[in-house]
From TrEMBL:
Residues carrying 4-aspartylphosphate: 52
Signal peptide span: none
Protein's name according to its UniProt entry: Transcriptional activator protein CopR
Domain OmpR/PhoB-type: from-to ranges: 126-224
Record gene name: copR
Amino acid sequence: MTRLIIVEDQVSLLKSLKKGLEEEGFEVMAASSGSEGYRLIQQEPADAVLLDLMLPDGDGISLLQRIREEDFQKPVLVITAKDSIDDRVLGLNSCADDYLVKPFAFSELLARLRAVLRRSPTSNFDTRLVYDDLVIDSLSRVASRNGRELKLTQRQFEMLEYLMRNKNRIVSRDALARDVWKAATATWTNVIEVQINQLRKKLGQESSVPVLHTVRGEGYQLGDEP
C-alpha cells in the first residue's frame, strides 16, 4: 500500500484529504505543523509527501529545503493558497515535484499525486504487480485477469493487493484484519471469509486456474497451491 505524509494546518482540510486518500487505498499519516511533519518524514517510511507552505511554526519552503538537504528523495507535492508565479517558481526551485493551488478539486490532487508517484526515479514501491495472468496496478486501482478487468470493491482490491504483495506466502486472518481492515475486531465475525469467497469467485470467472487458496487453520495464500 502506498504510504503518504500530509503536512497541513487546516484541520478540516487535513481530515478531508486523509479520509479521501484512504478511501482511494493510500495509507495516510497526518501532521498539522512543520515540526510534526519533519518528525514523521524522519521516522516513517513514505512514498510521497503533500506539503502546505503556510504552517503555524514556519514556512513549508524551509521544511522542503531542509529535507532535500538531508537527502529525502521521495516526491513532494506542494499544496498552498500562494498562487503567484513567484511563489510557484520558488516552490519548484526548492525541489518540489509539483505545485497545486488551493482551492483544488480532489480529482486533480489525486491525478497529480499519481503522476509524481509514477515518474519518481527513487521509488522502490512496485505499483504493478503480476502473478501469471493476474495483474494489478495499485495507482490506477485496476485489477485484471486473462486481460479482462475485474470488478472489485475497494476492500476486495485492497485485500488482493495485500495478498499479491505476499504471494506464495500464507497470510493469516489476523494479518488481514491488522493490515487491510485496520481493525483487530474484523476477526470477530466472518467478514474476512465472506470477502475472500467473493474475491475467489471473481478471480475464477476469468480463468479456470485457481490462484487464491485457503490453508486450513492458517489463512490464505495467493499463488502456487500450498
